[in-house]
Amino acid sequence: MAKTADRARDVLGDREHALRLLRLMVLVRRFEERAEEQYTRARIGGYCHLAIGEEAANVGSIDCLGADDYLFVSYRDHAAALAVGSSPAAVMAELFGKETGVARGYGGSMHLLDVDRHFLGGWGIVGGHLPIAVGAALALDYQDAPGAVLCQFGDGATNTGAFHEALNLAAIWGLPIVFQVINNLYGMGTSVDQASAEPELHKRACAYRMHGERVDGNDVLAVREAAGRLLARAREESEPALLETTTYRYRGHSVADAGKVYRTADEVDSWRERDPITRFVAVLQEHDLLDDEALDEMRKQVSDEVSEAIREAAAAPAPGPDELYDNVYGDEHWREQFDAMDTAAPFGEREETRSWLR
Length: 358
Ligand SMILES: Cc1ncc(C[n+]2csc(CCOP(=O)(O)OP(=O)(O)O)c2C)c(N)n1
Ligand SMILES: [Mg+2]
What we know:
Layout: H1 2-12, H2 15-40, H3 55-62, E1 70-73, H4 78-84, H5 88-95, E2 119-122, H6 129-142, E3 149-154, H7 161-173, E4 177-183, E5 186-187, E6 190-191, H8 192-195, E7 211-216, H9 220-237, E8 241-246, H10 265-272, H11 276-286, H12 292-315, H13 333-340, H14 349-357
Parallel strand pairs: 1-2, 1-3, 3-4, 4-8, 7-8
Antiparallel strand pairs: 5-6
Helix pairs in contact: 1-9, 2-3, 2-4, 2-11, 2-12, 3-4, 3-9, 5-12, 6-7
The structure holds thiamine diphosphate (TPP) and magnesium ion.
């Protein structure tokens, strides 16, 4: 317990670090609010899952990653990209499907990545990235390389077969990986209580004789302390762990869900009272690390940075049609296959696509 408090104080003893953490959470919040707005302006196509309310769970653990570590996350991935240091302009450009995006505009909102920063995605299949993250941990172990893997996923993912396979292999092989379940109480419209026979998700670790624990995912220092400790153990002792961080998404599952049918307004309000940013601001103020003026200035700077990101992303070019077949494996038959596809698109895209193919 004493050690826990010490580690939390580490950050509070380093003003620059503490403010960097806060700034990141404020950036994620602002970025997501503006992404939501840009979606309604039809600048973002496909899906878009926002992490408003979950900033501490995302940012607190990613803050513990070192240069040798690797990160895998689900499709609710904007915060992860920003937390590893991808530029907001490149992340926004990816959402817009632009050439300057982190994945050249091929991936969109759910498939962000930044290989240079060891951020290996952004994955759309629920639970699908867990075995891939285990593969990365196996590679580290096999090559006797330093570092560990952090794999974040939702509560819904803990009910997939891939979750059990991944934890089992990580445990029997003793791999350097921390599985972080971001328990936001819902998988789309289904609550954890309805979906999970053991709703205290960290307890599932015992089925693999793995260490499991739960922390308040809206307390960035608690998340950071637990993730830092478990990642250190993964690196030094090659011991995997399951960390459950409880949090809440204020918005619906995706921009297509208002999030009002399966939960009450009172429930949402009760979580707003535990808002991760408001709480961290209060801690910083208590420790005389931040005053109102500095907070306003930070908010303004972040807001301007995101506006600039939007401007840059909007002005960037989209990848050209000539790139349609880049990175497609196989022989020339795919041309015929694409040609034979009827996209059933209402605005004449089919004819347009055909003209590219000629
Ligand atoms: C294998 C699979 N099944 C179903 C879906 C559809 N789906 C997308 S998100 C989602 C809910 C997942 O919830 P959770 O893991 O709690 O993550 P959250 O969205 O809350 O972050 C579902 C069922 C999918 N993408 N992949
Ligand atoms: Mg969930």
